[in-house]
Amino acid sequence: MEATQKAGFKAGLAAAAEAVVAAKDVLTKADQAIGDGDHGLGMARGFRAFAEALAKQEGGDAAASLQAGGRALMMSSGGASGAIFGTFFQAAGKALPPGDLPEPAALAAAFATGLQAVRDRGKAKAGDKTMIDAAEPAIAALAAGPQDLALALTGMARAARSGMDATRDMVATTGKARALGERSLGHPDPGAMTFTLWCEALAARMG
Amino acid sequence: MVIKKAINDPENLVREIAEGVVFAAHGRVRLLEDLPVLVRTAIEPGKVGIVVGGGSGHEPMYQGLIGPGYADAVACGNMFAAPTPDVILAATHAADQGKGVLYLQANYAGDNMNYEIAAELAADDGIVTRTVRTGEDVSMAPELGRRGLAGSFFTLKLAGAICGTGADLDQAADLAQRVADNLRSLSVAFSPGSLPDTGEKTFEIAEDEIEVGMGVHGEKGVATLKMAKADPLTDLMIDKLAGDYPLAAGDRVALLVNDMGATTLMELYVVTRRAHQRLAEKGITVVDTWIGPYCTTQEMAGFSLTLLRLDAEMEALLARPAANESFLRP
Hints:
The complex is a heterodimer of chains A (207) and B (330). Chain A is an all-alpha fold. Chain A contains ten helices and no strands. Chain A has one domain: DhaL domain (Serine Threonine Protein Phosphatase 5, Tetratricopeptide repeat, Alpha Horseshoe). Chain A is 72% helix and 0% strand. In chain A, helix 3 runs antiparallel to helix 10 and helix 8 runs antiparallel to helix 9. Chain A is globular, with a radius of gyration of 16 Å. By secondary structure, chain B is an alpha/beta fold. Chain B contains eight helices and 14 strands. Chain B has a six-stranded mixed beta sheet with strand order 1-2-4-3-5-6, with helices on both faces. In chain B, strands 11-10-7-14-12-13 form a six-stranded mixed beta sheet. The longest helix of chain B has 17 residues. The model of chain B has no long low-confidence stretch (mean pLDDT 94). Chains A and B meet through helix 3, helix 4, helix 5 and helix 6 of A and helix 3 of B.
């Protein structure tokens, strides 16, 4: 029973990656509204590579999964989103202690490290209408959540979604959407949407 | 409605574009086996290498801008998406002649980050790089960090020219930065392009309207105007470009009239005529003019105007011979 559970996080990451791949058209539509419409394609390519890297990985170490998946994503997705999400997972994986099933607090700390790497790389901050606006409250919820990983991830996913919803009221100041200024209002940020769908699928699979 | 295009499986599109360049270059350009990187077959030894590359779908930028006096290697991204760090790194190794490598990229978040990661990886491999970003779209406030349009052509052309004189990496990068600082562009779109992978249009526009300040990826512009005749439209654009520096009487510029993909050369000549007239009225001398498709967005109709304010060194470099291996032949 314990072995099944231990393999669970890697399976959760795989399911989350597949969920983003499956959301390609939804993400494309979201990006057409404020960007150039290729976010879904890039993310589908990147998360497919993420899932393939997991399939090749021996064992189920969560840190290794995040690093291998993040590297595969970064080297296949392209664009800003590939660099951002690749950086996030790679840096999070490097920060996570070894083990198949991370503690929620350790996972939150690792994700926080990943998010800081994203801030450093992309020079964006909360409120700029990026994936940070979903990831920041999501990681905070994970850190403050229950000890049970599945429950904590559910709280994380919920916080990600409300963070994503809040991006509708934000004016883009970074990325291709920044040229639109106030015309970006009313649309959620596609990167925040990707992060949210990823969290929701991870939580659902772990639950 | 899906746009008709002479393509095969979109999955293979980036590779097939690069293969076409190789065939068209008749032995002067090769394609790496495992990654979408175009490389000159006979890079002059001891030369500073120049690597360019961004999202594909904007041909001839950058796949067609390879050759003596232009890029030594091109890192090809997927459609409209910056190349990944491993692709840029492979281009870096291929272009490096031991004197360092100059990255010339358009100012987009994706390109910035992927080139930054590639530069870190290149440093790990012992290759010194410098990066110059071109961002010259006057439809955006400078503090936003302007995005790059067709002006990247001039950054590359002049960097290619100075590298041909035996300049070192810092000299080449400083010159390229000066070029980037003296570039201004503005675009206008009449009808949208589409993403080749999906066949879907990148934006919608009314029959009688035009979009000013359109990005090269088909992002929506910053203002929608009613369609206008060529002369008032050109005047509006030239005034905005010249006013942005601002240019003064006696200044000397190079002019690029760029087709966004589906605009006729006929229209470009009409626009070129008026651009010259308007600049002359301001006492500005156009030293040389480039007309045609340089940075396109599929079948987007519209054009962009780019001015490069010249100094004596830039003007001399602009006149140096160069050869595109597959796009423009001298």
